[in-house]
């Protein structure tokens, strides 16, 4: 196998694929990068058994400046190979595989020889047909991921909660995540109805990596779902993720259907206030801020306290305040994560009682996005 290519093009694809490669895998060959060269171009593959990424560099694209000497395939140690490519001196590079998988990488006056592995020993990626593929806007999917993965659990004691629960019925897609302290739910309408209904759980880690790969030039994403895998196809890239097994808990009963206190804030202003209050709460052992709503005086005040450092008090600006007086404490980090998902919009915060979960929804299109946070008992 031998080819010459523009180094920047190769490096971008290499970086994308490397997202899936882990040094901690139990399958040694998966610490490597698989490179396949055929007449149509290069295919780079990386995998950690949970996530697999395959990206193609087409020979027909003149910008790639891919010159094919001879076809073939090889697996190279990903970490070393990536560092080598980053530091090559010239704008082009040549890779040639010789006897016994010895691989020579040259650029300008620099020449590296590294030991490769037989690509036939690399695990095959699952074949997922495009029969029932769904299409969704990349911007919408990126937003959906960023609004829900914040609530996935980091605790492996309940592995099912480390994923985002995705249900598709007709043209409705609903994504839910919860770590039992907070919940995020986002729904959207698909451009075309799905031929089948789906109920799957995608690891939060997979969706986070997928979101990072969705650059601004990606417009559409095709989603294909199989029995234990989901495949996202965009541009020249195929992103595979395993699915979590098990039944996701019924989260619909967690969302309150009524409230006794309602407040409307501009999300960016409230976020800034929470950030200031949390400066001191982070120094405290329990990391809690307190919100006091006085309806008669039309006053909302937030308090942060650290016995060692001091305290902070801030009167919040709001658009509306109604219902019953309330004093409630919560983890400011959960609140900050939730508020960042709303962007520049106005939000409605609905409270039931000091020790009952409260919800945040956008003032417009309330049914599409909801965040729920469980308060903290401080007495």
User: Total domains, how many?
Assistant: 3
Largest sheet: 9 strands, antiparallel
Number of strands: 26
Helix segment count?
6
Beta content comes to: 35-45%
CATH topology of the largest domain: DNA Polymerase III, Chain A, domain 2
* Broad CATH class of the largest domain: Alpha Beta
Measured distance between first and last alpha carbons: 70 Å
* Oligomeric composition of the shown chains: single chain
Structural class: alpha+beta
Strand arrangement within the widest β-sheet reads 14-11-12-13-26-25-24-18-22
Rounded Rg? 25 Å
- According to CATH, the homologous superfamily of the largest domain is DNA Polymerase III, subunit A, domain 2
- Indicate the mean pLDDT: 93
Q: Which percent range fits the helix content?
A: 10-25%
* Poorly predicted ranges: none
Overall 3D geometry? Answer: elongated
- Corresponding CATH architecture of the largest domain: Roll
